[in-house]
Amino acid sequence: MSKSIAVVRGAFNPPTVGHMDFLSRLSNFDQVIVVPLYADPKGRKLTEYNKRCEMLNLFLQDIAIANVELLVIEHELQDDSEPLSEADLLEYIAAQYQDCEITLAIGHDKLTYLSKQKYYADIDGRFNIYSVAERCVMRSDIVREKLSRGVCISGDTTPSIMNYIASNNLYESSQLEMAS
Questions:
Q1: Which residue stretches of the chain are H helix?
Q2: pLDDT attached to residue 178
Q3: b or e along 143-152 (b: 16 or more beta carbons within 10 Å of the residue's beta carbon)?
Q4: Dihedral sign for Cα atoms in the order 42, 45, 46, 48
Q5: CA separation (Å) from 36 to 10, 15, 48, 74, 125?
Q6: Which of 2, 76, 104, 166 has the greatest number of beta carbons closer than 10 A?
Q7: Residues of the chain with pLDDT under 50
Q8: Is 148 helix (H, G, I), strand (E, B) or coil?
Q9: In this predicted structure, what is the pLDDT of residue 177?
Q10: Quick count: other Cβ atoms within 10 Å of Cβ 113?
Q11: Spatial distance between the Cα atoms of 83 and 97, rounded to a whole number of angstroms
Q12: Which pLDDT does position 118 carry in this prediction?
């Protein structure tokens, strides 16, 4: 049987315990590849790519899920004209991991959005789509909103992420419109 790989793509702006719960529910895959977005497809402002990649690396070290690894690649694949699509990302990963079964793992809330994208036909039938229902309601936008009000986020993310946010002065009130 071929190796099963789940691809998880997101802004991780910042990573939260909701992301940890999501990733922990992918234990049935041989490998989980986490890919941070370079640019938001909806055009929302994101924290700098390199900072989100650094946070995600720290976060994955903190949660230490054996089959999960970080792939920082979108900055190399991104065309300046428009954000990279899930279809293009999956094609790239499939080329790197030939003879593997590639699955796009997404939150249940993203399933409707994905199915309405023009490139959905390029995914459907070529790759599996694995939808994960939200159990842990802790999203990046909630963490950012709490931070803007000075509310403690100790139960919402990992200590390394809290320290990184504090030391880099991230998520001040002027940055509230950023993506999750």
A1: 17-24, 49-63, 74-77, 86-96, 108-115, 120-123, 140-148, 159-167
A2: 39
A3: bbeebeeeee
A4: positive
A5: 5, 10, 11, 7, 24
A6: 104
A7: 173-180
A8: helix
A9: 38
A10: 13
A11: 23
A12: 78
